[in-house]
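Known limitations

Structure tokens in this collection are predictions and should be treated as such. Users comparing against experimental data should check residue numbering before alignment. To illustrate the layout, the record for Expansin is reproduced below. The input appears on top and the generated tokens appear beneath it.
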Amino acid sequence: MDIPAISAILLLYLSLYLAAGTGIIGGEWTLATATYTRRSQTGGGACGYSWEAEQRPESVFELGRNTAAVSGELFRRGGACGSCFELRCVDHILYCNHGSPSVVVTIVDFCAPDYGLPSDDGGWCNFPRHHFDLSLPAFSSIAVAVADIVPVQYRRVRCERSGRIRFAIRGRAYFYEVLITNVGFDGEVAEVMVKGTRTGWIPMGRNWGQNWHCNADLSGQALSFELKGSGGRSSTSYNVVPSTWIFGQTFEGKQFENY
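Generated tokens:
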């Protein structure tokens, strides 16, 4: 096999991997399963939204009642946090709501695996399953809540958000951390850079969920942020954090724009 043919095959596999991992907004429906939980998903979890919920209780209502935790195959170590998926119950005449209506959910948490149970009998979030653990309102929108688990189809969709992207400043001294929330369009953030008035652009790493960090002392500097979404959109918010900032404050920046 010649080099161009091998390159073409590698590119094909890469494109399929990316499509499976992140999902293309408005793409094809993919099979998965769904359960539900009665506990609140926005007050805690692996995306980091619990801190904002404590500081701004109204943020729970901004995320809405339709939320979900997802299995590791979909969670991607926090890469899916904030993204939106449309789900519909399929192939279950007893439990799917009539007409197979759909619901849009926001990913707010990680559904942990349980390898003590079979993947097809309780270990719903075991790798490599595609599974959604939905809030009760979201589940009830597509299926009868007496069901333990239902088959669903899902696809990535655009996130509808009101207002601007928020940057919650956390950390200490030379460990600078920011929680990024209320992200529209792509919903999820793929890359973050921060710039102080005395620095160039500094790449930030994903600490966990939607918490991003860098090892830098940015105190006493006005801060700018550059974000890139998984769908290729970018947003630059210049000097949105004043030089008088302190840890624990939240500021607003430019929302992703449509194109």
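For this record: The first helix runs from residue 3 to 22. The chain has five helices and 14 strands. Please report discrepancies through the issue tracker.
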